[in-house]
Amino acid sequence: xxxxxxxxxxxxxxxxxxxxxxxxxxxxxxxxxxxxxxxxxxxxxxxxxxxxxxxxxxxxxxxxxxxxxxxxxxxxxxxxxxxxxxxxx
Length: 89
Prior knowledge:
The protein is an alpha+beta fold. It is built from 3 helices and 5 strands, in the order βββββααα.
């Protein structure tokens, strides 16, 4: 029996490689702008972040999500990400 490959992604904040399902995807697409994508399947440029508040704070302080998405992220999106991170545990 073949072993199924687990897709790995890198957190933009801490730089750790983790399974895709353990990370939260933030997407920049033309229709909706910057949104949180818990499914990981929406179209657009994506960045992954750990479901950990310390990674979110590090990414916010160093503007790593902005750099990864090539866009400016407002405070509302950071609040939405923080809500998702704190409620996902």
